[in-house]
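Recall the central idea of this unit: under ordinary conditions, the amino acid sequence of a chain determines the structure it adopts. In this exercise we apply that idea directly, starting from the sequence alone.
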Amino acid sequence: MKNKIVCFVMAGLMAFSLVACGGKGNTPDDVGKDSKQESGSASMNVANKDKPLVWFNRQPSNSSTGELDMAALSFNDDTYYVGFDANQGAQLQGTMVKEYIEANIDKIDRNGDGVIGYVLAIGDIGHNDSIARTRGIRMALGTGVEKDGGINSDPVGTNTDGSSNMVKDGNMEIGGKNYVVRELASQEMKNSAGATWDAATAGNAIGTWSSSFGDAIDVVISNNDGMGMSMFNAWSKDNKVPTFGYDANNDAVAAIAEGYGGTISQHADVQAYLTLRVLRNALDGVDIDTGIGKEDEAGNVLSDDVYVYKADERSYYALNVAVTAENYEDYLDSTKVYGPVSAKLDEGKHATKKVWLDIYNASDNFLSSTYQPLLQNYDDLLNLDVDYIGGDGQTESNITNRLGNPGQYDAYAINMVKTDNAASYTSLLSQ
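Accordingly, the structure predicted from this sequence is:
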């Protein structure tokens, strides 16, 4: 598989019919087409604002309230979001941690004080996924307090004595004994340049926390595996403190054999497929559910236990799976394509199309080590010529400056730095 560099303008003409979206259970309704795109043609005669667009990984939304940006999600009739069910995954992570504590209580309370102390690495305080995961942990462990109608997801700084008003002490009864559960510390892992979800910052944080709290830290929890593995390698592995992350990155899954407590697979293999499949279907002018909820001519189809579609949000969500010591060997290769959608499309019927796709942060462990390799596997199967653009994780302009000639492309897949900034991209496509 190969990274491609922006290089040439595709020639030719095509007739392009927009695909509307309805909702029925897990998938969109069938939509009749007045006309279908002629195979082998390019979309050079279609205005950029009318070309297929998929937002992925970062859903257009208000970073303060979480309210979806429906203007961005409805930019045109072929605009969708692809991600995963953040709330389901967050609850799953919280449950995984809680069940681990219950099953291993005899060795969890390291200093025997009856307090199960945990530290929490928060990825991005303005990111819906990070907010959901923080809330999921606090809900499961009983440490959450209500704020503005939901569980407070703000970092607490330090909370050694349990006096913070941002969280509260939880309680767990295990084997007839009551234990206090306390969030000792949490912070947003943002580096000095402004990049969030920063693994190096998390590694530094666990050094500070361990110096301050010592054997009061019984569990280490992270909003993702990049930060989780940084803390695991820096401190918790040697001190045999279970560490929990999210994303099921290869290194994290392998580390379960060495004491990493567990992680959550957000079915990146399904997400990557959906990211490109939705574009492929729109470009072909076929029912958007082709090869997703409905089997295509190559036999590709997804079962309804691995994804959901929400028509009112124009969004596809992959479902999450807990990866623990019991099943981790099944998840050791995070870049393997998902078997039920691994058949290559006939290029004679699905001519190659050119796609512009960005990764908001080229240094992000999950996106660079798992998601992009999966996309690069699927782009060949779906006959898509994709230019992969890596951002710096800090500014939208670092990415948008490289979308100088959107007319070169038949479709776009966008991974924003900040969820609020969809207009930075749609404005370029509207010119």
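The chain is about 30% helix and 20% strand.
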